[in-house]
Amino acid sequence: MMSEHSTIDPTDASTERPERPTAVTVEGLDYAHGDVSVFADLSVGVDAGTVTSVVGPNGSGKSTLLALVAGVLEPDAGTVTVAGDGDRTVGYLAQRPEFRPQFTVRRTVGFYCSLVAGGQDVDALLDRVGLTPVADRRVGALSGGMVRLLGIAQAAVGDPAVLVLDEPTSGLDPEMTRRVAGVVTDLAESGAAVLVATHDLHLVDRFVDRVLVLDRGTLRSTGSPADLRDATGADTLDGAIAALTRAGGSDGVAVSAGLDGGVSR
Amino acid sequence: MTRAHVLAVAQREFATVFRTRLLVVLSVGFVGLIAGVAWLGASPAYLALSFDLLTPLEALVPVLAFAFGYRALLGDRERGELARLRTYPLDHRLYVLGVYLGRAVGLLGVVLVGLSTAALVVPLTGTESLTAVAIYGTVDSPALFLRFLILTAVFALVALALALLVSAAVRSTWNGLALATGAVLALVVGLDGALVGTVTATLPAPDVTATLLALSPTSAYRSLAFALVFAPGGVTVSGGSTAVIGALALGSWFVGSLALTGVLVRR
Amino acid sequence: MRAVVVAGAVVGLTLLVATTGFVANPAAEADLSPVPFDRTLQTGMTGVDVQQAEAAGHAIPRGQVFYSQYEYVVGFYGIDALLAGTTGRYTEQFGRPLAAHVTDFAGTDPTLTAAGYLNRSRDAPMGWTRATDAWYVVGTAARTPAGPTPVPFGDRDAATAFAREYDGEVLDWETLSDRRGSRSATGPPASPTDERLRWADRQVRGASAIRERPVSVTVGEDAPTVAAAVERAPPNTTVRIPPGQYDVNLTVTKPITLEGAGTATVLDGGGNGTVLTAATARVGVTDLRVTGVGDRELVSVDENEVADDPAWDSRIRLVYGRGDAGIRLSTAPGSLVENVTVQTDANGVVVFDSPGAVVRRVRIDGRDGSTTGGMGVLAMYSRMVIADTTVDGGADGVYTHHADGLVVRDSAFRGMRYGVHEMYTSDTLLVNNTITGADIGIFVMTRPTGNAIVGNRLRDNGVGVETAGTASATVDNVAVGNQVGISIGTSRSVVANNTVAANGVGLRSTTLFPTNDVTGNDVVANDRPVEVDLGRLTVWAVDGRGNYWGSVPGTDRDGDGVVDRAFRPTDALDSRARVRRGEYVLAHATAVELRRAFQQAVPGLRPAAVVDPAPLAAPTRPERLDRLNVSTRE
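^ Those are the sequences you sent over. The predicted structure of the assembly is below.
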């Protein structure tokens, strides 16, 4: 799967995109933590069947955006529209997911499955994220990576059209990171819109279809990793992002305007 | 679907209770204490046993109920469970209901086991009687203890509702612990103490004490016990029955707590 | 199925079942129909009153009460007792009466004898009727041996008819209760000690005239024998008996005084029967010694003789009343036995049908080293005075049978079965006596009333004082070194201001009617302060003053002399807390307080125990404890 994904020509991304329906539409989003405004009039879209990554420095509002998309937070103004007609439209993995340590993996996932219609197959779901071998282990005895996989399984319960994953790989070893990434791309392959927040730009470069560059609550740029490199002339995605977020207010708008219209304004 | 959701949540809470070592230890302790009080008193009558247990239960039931309840919604909040569950098609009020039911079943189970163990003292320790003299049942009967048991169960349910309210209102473990401790103290002594203060400070005392009892769930419980257990048992309770006020009070505390919990859990 | 559903169903079902507790009416559940009277726990009129009436075939109105918090049905002899039993101390102790029944005289054809005793037809069985629905005829001449009585009827017409015939008035229960309210004593009466002492003084003064009679005959000078001297002496004179040994088996039938010269004058019965019998009023026997008494302390009786005697107590009269004695006063009212020594294996002085007799400064040596033998002084049907008398050995120092009003004072009883043994005897006064080494120092039996046991000293007995009956007073006694200090078998009585120290058990409660006022007693340094046999929870304090138990847990913060914490002398923790620091601290634990919160509630349903809600901070009679050298710290 990973190899297959890596063969996609990034330059084709923009030409392919219109064929994919938009799964998430954010329009005119305002949100403030108390008196501190996080977003003012933010608009963005996420396509189905893709892995979209939100990147940006700490405090840029990545987690907040994800929580708003997931419906965990309510916007002060604006709308978050999520496509999909299922029982559960958004699956959400919080940054450091925790589960009741007393229960086994199977019981934990089983509980979430019982909350959605249609009798989700717990074992199939565990198999999909590779947790079958530890299905009967107590959550309290799982490694951090396993818990993350459990969280992803939980997010996938009910086959939601949109999966919102906040830092699914942070703190994981490379092997587990690859495994998580594989599961994520697999979910996108099966048609879901996957919105990921991450600091791991290497991972973004390899697995992500589209990047949303967020800085201090403002969308600096969107596009495939290749688009971003091209637009900034940087050799690496790292450099491209750095350039985009360093540029500051008006430049950012200009750059993103020069790219594809992920920004609807 | 609604029923399935509530049951799923309740089942998880119920299972959590019995997988939490602290609660198991506390439950065993509760049963032990209640049984201990009963066996030490060695009352040969249910009425006397109810009297013996009233005061210990006034203190122990809130403690147990808060142990069962104060972490329930707070733990979910801290683990991100409350946020996570917003992505599921589950009404938050149903969630609160499920949590309440699951914990309530556990709590009532412990209370029932405790009181049943205590009740065994009556048939098992029966003091010797004079055989030449006619013996009759007196008014003492298991029925009185059953009434007492029901009232205690209701008191436990109200205390659990209050515990969930605290659990939904706080944001951190330490706050939760502090508020829960405060709430237990308020239930056990604080509200009654305030009542006593109010009643004795107002001279001449207006005869509203019976109504004021509603302000304290513990006093409401006690007044119900006097009205429905002890008075029918032949104990003179002056001033007549306060059963209606007590029942209304407990009902209001129960409904109010759960309703407010349903609102707070969403925040 | 989910565990929570199963558990929930179990819990829910249990609670559902428990709600039946609200459906059932506990009061209605109990079977409150009357039981045969002999199956009730009986109280009320005294044993002797009941026995007399029943022997004579007279009916006594009776009641029985079912209390909400007492498993036994309590039977009351007499309507006054029933009224007392439905109020006051009884209801405090046993809860509210669920049902009260009275004997129903309707249809039993009741009549009154000339003396006012109730007779009824023996053909119709006496039934019971609800006391609160019954009709009571008052104001007739109807009475029991205890006094006038209302006559209860279940049927109003029958009551009216009876009232018309005997000139009475019909009342319902409520009116009767109101009217009798002030009269039916629910608490113990004031102790009549002074009045009885004055009566005793009058008897002694009256009898002392017997010693002042002029000497008419001197034995050996004016007559060869005592019998001849008595024969010659005119009434109201003295027969002087100089020192010497005289063989005597004599009955005196005129009011004279036999006066010896002290212990040197010896009347010897030769080991055969009674030595000296007085069979008329105001005989005096003074200043001499009596020996050679027969050895039959009891007389075996012919059953036909018992059956022929209509008296209720014929057996006692025949068996006890005819034993051998040193001196026998038989129908000799106002007689005096003074300054006499009797050596006897049977009885010392028997006083039979001789009211006003005085036995004073008499010394009786009974059978040694044994608790068998006769009685030092045996009083039957005689309100008499026993004073300054010493009895050693034998069965009982003083045995009374139906000798109401008797006074025993300033006497000593040592090494015997019972020091003073009261049977069927009410209204006595036992004051300032010293009793040591007896199985039981003072033993009151047979449900009498109005006995006063005041200021006696009881040392090294099995039981110091053992009481029974009602409306009695046991006050100001000192019980030291007995196995049991004072054993309380009374109801509605006072046990107050006694000093009970260094006994195996200080106070023992054996009553089934724990309605006594137990207050002001100093109970210290006993192995166990209190033991409770039978009975239920008993509260020992009156008007906020309990007893002194030594240093008990708790403090007297407001300085009113009462410790602000209830003391439970029957409780192992409390009782040890008086001497051991660990238990003292533990006794104040919240856990203990929680458990004790309602422990005085519903006493009738509690196991046997004693609570003193107001233990005293200081002894009532500190000087006695000082004198006894008893450490109050134990």
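Residues 23 and 29 of chain B are 10 Å apart (CA to CA). The two ends of chain B are 24 Å apart (CA to CA).

Shout if you want it in another format.
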